[in-house]
Amino acid sequence: MANNNIDVTTIPGYGMDADPENEPTYPMKHYTGDDHNRINYERSVQQPQTVEILQSTERPAITTVFGTSVPPSGLSGAIRRYAFKHSEDRYRHWLPLIFADRINVFEGVIEDLRKGHVPNVFAERGWKVEMKHNAVGFLSKLAITALVTAAIVTTVTRKK
What we know:
Blueprint: H1 74-83, H2 91-114, H3 121-124, H4 127-133, H5 135-157
Helix pairs in contact: 1-2, 4-5
C-alpha cells in the first residue's frame, strides 16, 4: 500500500480542537481557563493495594482508585483472572467476566448458607417489585423456569 501524504488543511474540521483559541462550545460552556490544562494535573495519591487487583493488559499501571470490597476468589475469581489475560477488544475478555458474575451469585448464596444465613432470594432478586410492575413478564419467566427445571429433572431421573 502506498503512503499518500494528505494535505490536512483540505479536510474540513481537521485539528479544530488543537487550537485553544478556537473553542466551538464557547456560547454553551462556562469557560474557566483550566479546560486546556487537563494534561498538566497533579496525580492523586495511589490507593494502597491491599487485595488482588485484576489489571487490563492495555494499561501499564493500576488506576489511582479501585474497588476492594469484593476481591476475586473461588471459581469466579479464577474465571476473572483468565479474562484479564486477554485484550478488552475480544470476547475472550468480556464473556468470561459476565459468566464469572453469574457464578459469583451462586458462590454468595453458598457462602451465606455456610455462615448459617438463609438468603431471602425473593426480596434480593426484586421479585416483589417485578410482580407489581411487570406481572406478565415475571410470570412468563417463572413458567419458563419451571418448564426447563421439570425437563431437566425428568431427563436426569428417567430410567433407561
